Structures are given as structure tokens and as C-alpha cells.
């Protein structure tokens, strides 16, 4: 493509990654030149695009009008690979963008590091291989125990945290959280927001992550401590801002063809883009998670969904969830562009949990109308503390997250 847009949460490595590919760079938020950059973006935006290509425009959303200028330049230059745009927020003023960029831009969503990228997964089991219809037996040994999983949840996948000593690494998520509530949530769309209210909403989201909690549920959760008049409108506004800065990334519902007429619930499941954000919102640490395994299970699911999204992106796929009115559900449906899909249940560990996950997966697979759509490529119970990765006699794969890669 003529231009590539890399978007995602702050601190996930967008600029560093793009710098490795760029031959010239414009930092829009450089304190020494930001004022001049903004003025030039209004007066003569083409000047900002001059330089060796690929040219990186970092934090481009500060001057949304650059989008149309880049699009125009792509149309009038020969070849591909002219510009890389990076940003940690959706532009606040989208009225200054007059063209979608279709045919000129490729979109890449960058997330915090998966366990395989951070070196915490052995990568002995490949998601790509599970989609291979000829995939047979798998075997791998998991090196993560309950304490290690708790620490990885709290550390998160922030690239800088991965390189720091244990105590300092755990502080990165708290620093990120402080930046979100005190600054970023207001900068998302130029609307001044109350940091304390933002903290309350994020705490409620943390308690309700990995569920389809409605806005009303979140409002009830904070109503006792918040006297705002239009609480539903306020909460909705805060959630929209958190999505714009990629703090939240909800999972959309999957709609298969079923043999039964069971109504499928289409509400999104709420997730943080990184599990450590929710940990920071609740003000807890690894020991607190180990002491409350039910809460830890929700955070573990967020970690697994993050990793599955990273791996699915590499395969050209998308991660969904499934839930219907009869109570049947599936934590993650990994769906590829070629129509192949796999079903995954997330369980922290333990034989009973693994058995329950396998039973859920088999029941859902039996309800899918394979006359109208293909059968799932695999059924997988994704675990935390299970010692081994293996294939059960019923065909269900049991895979520790500490053994998985794309």
C-alpha cells in the first residue's frame, strides 16, 4: 500500500517498531517543534511530508488534516510504501478527514506483547498448525505455575516492563493507569473528564471484565459514589473515550449457523487491551490474584484473549465470543478469512475445569449446522497451569498459554 496506519495503546511499541522501517521521521508531539508542526499542518501540510520514504508521521492524529494530504500524495506518487502513520488515539476532530483512505492505506492494530513475544511462552504449540486439517498429536511442557501466571497478568505485555526487574516491571501498569485517568481520557476527544470518576468507571469495568456487562450494570456499580445527573450518558461517554485510546477492546459476538433456533446474544464481551490495566484499576497485585482465584480467572481470560488476538492477526483472523440465551457459550472463536475457525474455552487450570471446558466445546460443536458451514478446525481448552499440552481422546486439545504461539 502507499501508506500504513499503525494504531494501538500507548507504550505498546508502535513508534519503536515503525522507526525500524522508516528512512525519515516527523514527531508531531516533539515539544520543541510541536507548535510549528501544527501551524504548518494548517498552512502547508505537504511540507511536513517531505523526506526520504518510508516517512514516519508519529502521533499524526494531532493534525487530522494530514490524513487527506497523505492520501493525495499517495495518489500522485509512483510505487508503494511512502508513509507510515502511528497513533495512540482515534482523532478527536474527525470532521477534518474527508476521505476514508480506501485503496491507499493499510490498517495495522498493534497490541501489547503476547507471552510468546515476551519470551514467556515456549511456542511449542502453533495456532497455525491447529488450523491444519492434518494436525495430529501435540505435546509440550508448560513452565508456568500459578504464581508466574499472576505475575504476568500484573506485569502485562508492555515492552519496557518486559525488560525491567520484577518490582519495577509491575509499576509500569500503574504508571499507565495514572496517565489514562489524569490526561489521556480527556485528550481523546478534547472533553475534560474527572479523574476520580474515570477511576471508578475503570474499577467497575475491571470487576466486570470478560462479561457482557451493560452500561446500566456499570452505572449501578458507581451510582452510590457518583452524583452526576445523567449518569448513563456520562458513563457511555467515558467508555467511548477509553476505546478511542485503545484501553478497552471489546470482543464482538460470533453468529454461527445452528441446528436449533436458539437466540444468540449479540452483546460484546468487555475486555481491557491488556490485563494489567484492570489490575491497576483495582489496586491489586500478584498475591491478591492468587488469593482470589475467581477474580484471577477473569484476568487470565483477558490475558488469553489478548494473546489470541495477536496470534489471530498474524494469521489474518479475528477473535469473537459466543453466547446464547440457553446459557451455552464459548470464550473465544478464532475465525480466519478463509472460513476456517476454531473454538476455545479458557480455564485457569485443574482437571475439573479442563473437563468442563471440553464438555462445553463438544456441546457447541454438535449444535453447529455443518450442512451450512464447515465444522470447527479444532476445539481447544486454553489453560494456565496445566503441566502439558496434549490432545485428549475426544479430540479436544489442552494447551497451556505458556506453550502457544501464532
Query: What's the Cα radius of gyration?
Result: 22 Å
Largest sheet: 7 strands, mixed
Strand order of the largest sheet: 7-12-13-11-10-9-8
Which structural category do the helix and sheet elements fall into?
alpha/beta
Show unreliable segments: none
How many β strands by DSSP?
A: 14
Summarize the amount of helix as a percent range: 25-40%
How much strand?
15-25%
Number of structurally distinct domains = 2
Task: Give average pLDDT, whole number.
Answer: 92
Helices, by number, come to 14
Could you tell me how far the N terminus lies from the C terminus, measured between alpha carbons in angstroms? 24 Å
**What global shape is seen?**
globular
What series of H and E elements makes up the topology? EHEHEHEEEHEHHHHHHHHHEEEHEEEE
Report on the architecture of this protein:
The protein has 406 residues and is of the alpha/beta class. It has 2 domains: 3-109, Rossmann fold; 125-405, no CATH class. Helix content is 38%, strand content 16%. The protein contains 14 helices and 14 strands. A hairpin with a 5-residue loop joins strand 12 and strand 13 (397-400). The longest helix is centred in the middle third of the chain and has 22 residues, at 166-187. The radius of gyration is 22 Å and the shape is globular. The two termini are 24 Å apart. The model has no long low-confidence stretch (mean pLDDT 92).
Note the topology.
Layout: E1 3-7, H1 14-19, E2 24-27, H2 34-43, E3 55-58, H3 66-75, E4 83-87, E5 105-109, E6 125-126, H4 127-130, E7 140-141, H5 146-155, H6 159-162, H7 166-187, H8 195-207, H9 215-222, H10 231-244, H11 275-282, H12 286-291, H13 293-314, E8 317-323, E9 329-336, E10 341-347, H14 351-367, E11 378-383, E12 388-391, E13 397-400, E14 404-405
Parallel strand pairs: 1-4, 1-5, 2-3, 3-4, 6-14, 10-11, 11-13
Antiparallel strand pairs: 7-12, 8-9, 9-10, 12-13
Helix pairs in contact: 5-11, 7-8, 7-11, 8-9, 8-11, 9-10, 11-13
